[in-house]
Design a protein that fits this description.
The complex is a heterotrimer of chains A (about 325), B (about 300) and C (about 325). Chain A has about 325 residues and is mainly alpha-helical. In chain A, about 80% of the residues lie in helices and about 0% in strands. The longest helix of chain A is centred in the last third of the chain and has 39 residues. Chain C has one domain: Rossmann fold. In chain C, helix 4 packs across helix 5, helix 5 crosses helix 6 and helix 6 packs parallel to helix 7. The longest helix of chain C has 18 residues. The radius of gyration of chain C is 20 Å and the shape is globular. Classes of the chains: A mainly alpha (about 325), B mainly alpha (about 300), C alpha/beta (about 325). At the A-B interface, helix 1, helix 6, helix 7, helix 8 and helix 10 of A face helix 1, helix 5, helix 6, helix 10 and helix 11 of B.
Chain lengths: ~325, ~300, ~325
Amino acid sequence: MRFILRRLGFYLIAFWASITLNFLLPRFMPGDPVSRMFARSQDRMQPEQIEALRKLLGVDDRPLWEQYTDYLHNIFTGQMGVSISRFPTPVTEVISSQIGWTLLLGGTALVVAAVVGNLLGILAAWRRGGAIDSALPPLLVFIGSFPYFWLAMGALYLFGVVLGWFPIRHAFTDGLEPAFTWEFIGDVGAHLVLPALTIVLVSIGGWMLGMRNTMIATNSEDYITMAEAKGLRPGRIMLRYAARNAMLPSVTSFGMGLGFVVGGALLTEVVFAYPGVGYQLLNAVQGLDYPLMQGLFLTITAAVLLANFLVDILYVRLDPRVRSN
Amino acid sequence: MTTALLKQPTQPTAVRKPNRSFVHGLLSNKKALTGMAVMLIFIALALLAPVLFPGDPSRITAMASLEPSTEHWLGTTAKGQDVLALTVHGSRSSLFVGLTVGIASTFIGILVGLASAYFGKFIDEALSLVTNVFLLLPGLPLLVILAAFLPPGLGTVILVLVVTGWAGSARVLRSQALSIRSKDFVAAAVVSGERAGRIMFREILPNMASIVMGTLLACVIYGIGAQAGLEFLGLGDVSTVSWGNNLFWAGNEGALLTGSWWVFVPSGVCIALVAFALALINYAVDEVTNPRLRKIKAPATPKNIERSAAK
Amino acid sequence: MTISQVSFGSHEPVLEVKDLTVKYIGDTRSTTAVDRVSFSIGTGEVFGLAGESGCGKSTIANSIMRLLKDPAKIAGGSVSFGGKDVLAMSPEELRRFRWQDVAMVFQSAMNSLNPVLTIGEQIVDIFTTHAGYSRKESLRRAGELLELVRIDPARLKSYPHQLSGGMRQRAVIAMAVALKPSLLILDEPTTALDVVVQQEIMAQIKELQRELGFSVLFITHDMSLMVELSHRMAVMYGGRIVETAKAQDVYANPRHPYTQALMGAFPPLTGPRVPLTGLPEGVKFRNIPDLTEAAPGHYVAPIGADPSVIDPAPLEGAAR
């Protein structure tokens, strides 16, 4: 319990740090990107909207601490201003309409890569020098060396443009009405294949090698020798004794890996014009949409922190040693 | 992520052992040799670029979107620039940024790691907290908002990559420094009244040579990859020629949809080759320092054997 | 080379090890960790194996159950158990043989227990795998086992880190006798424990041995403990046996200089205080010959005939 509380405290600090960073960036950066933004889009806005955005981004004469408390209040009441690039939709509305797609893409890719990667790692370590152990790691490291977005471009070109097996853009066919029908779900699935595949391909090597290396370390532990001496069946030793212990560091890196996968998902979304937060982030950058950029950053950070917290709860379930002290 | 997980923190196999065996182990390791050969080729290309392809590589020299031919080995872009010249010149910026980011991140990592391990207590708590916060914040979104608010340019790119990249190396180096800090010879140095700086840099640091090298390689890989990602999003300085910018323009000019594969393949393959070569060297460093990961385990001295036998 | 069968109880040996050789195969060269070692253990007999750390004792223990891991390889000799050739067993035969016929208590109980499974689960494992009992039945028996070593059966739900060092080692001993094996290997079972707990554990083992009648291969470097517990014993040095006889004979009349040194390195449990002596600095034994019978049932590796047997050159000692 104390472990969980300590982690929770840590995530709160991390979240506070990212809010504060968000607050400070537009106020202390050289140049004046914000006024550039206003110059471009002022004529479309209502006076009170301009006023609110000025406050949010620091074009404001009040003392800093007053701005800061006001800012914190706004964030926690969900007032993140209006989007410039999708004027006049509020930032929160833009984000909530897109985050589902990112969760779908990132979640699918993360789970598939972690499960398959860890299983391969277990097998590779168990059969040292076997086919899986000698062929896959170098291949996966090589694939993992490509930038996410480049692999996405390659997959799009090869399977989308040349072979035409899968759709190459968006999350579902234009004009199709979102509904809980098999037709729609199948369509979404088909659009998911290529972007998810690229993320899985790039990240699976890390999972596999991480698991393989901890499994090898675990295999020389005395309790593995004892389990063998006990005459247990090999499958049981591999899963209940070796993998069960080796997965503990893997669970921790699941949380860490999340940040990377989110980054990868963002870039992949850009290539496939997949309507998630990453694609939106690029649009925001190109449209000098600072309120939306900040909102997206905070949302993504909050999601990553929350996921890490869930992983911590899982970790406590898995490691009895953490539970008792 | 690959590189982050590749790097398992290794225990120092022997404290104060001469580094000659490490270098020798590296030079007789196939992975290391392959990696170093690839790196040498790229470094040579980067240095010779102005000689091989004199003049501005982004000037328009031919018809647009030509397929690879004897005249333009890698074809031309939709604007009519020579892809080979762009690729070779691109290596300059990419390698430079990667190396600078790698060295700077590792340097910060060393400072933070050593300070954490040596001073401990409050300083360690505070530094670890900052490190962990930076590790946890999703890197790319952080990169994007930092780059968006800063004036565009090479300096911004490097600064932003160092800000987001140092934490990983600090964490690895801290845990290694901690384990060396607890060794007797450090305690002896403390008792004999050596100054803090001397203990950190003359007693602890030399024993972390291999892990520092691994961290450096991982940071360079990170730097090259992240620069490409940033530039691909159009957040770099789009007027310079680099692999990431080449890919940005390829995407912008619709190379994918028009089927001009030769425009986006070379720069991507180059990034991958460099990253893979560095990963190979990194992996070799791991194998040399951590015999458990080697295929045939061979602790050749009787002493080691008996120790593992008695286990 | 033959070894006398002055074994306790039956003359039928439970375990017979002949000319066992174990090598560590390296990249460039191999090292012999166990060199042509032979001994046998009779039914109900406690056989001690003594020697300094690194002399190959534990390697022998692991060879008997075929638990050696790369790069260690059995390079020659035979191990037979109740007439069955252990080295020729198929993986499945080997799996059934382990724990059912021979069980082992490892050096450190902390490290030999799986940290993420409860004590109960780790005992139940044994019953469900070997005896085919249901989970419920296995749990009941696991509780009985813990009672046998005087641990509250409620501890079945505890994880290893929640038990004290002594309790953990007793739990491991309980696991070892779960299937009533005919041979129990004790590989330095008390090294990691403090003296009081050591005594408790040894008393526990003696009691169980009397009750269940299994044979014991007892490995330690603690000579007084060994003499106290074993019927017969062997002393190892550098992968070879240098002396073997009844424990009392070795104790009363150690013949090999190494045994004498080893005896001198531990204080006697009772009697007057004597100064401790060890092997003089720089003395190494090399090319140890086969054993010969020095007295009835007392076998010693001869010394003196070959000048290379004792190598007192301090230069050699320093160069190592």
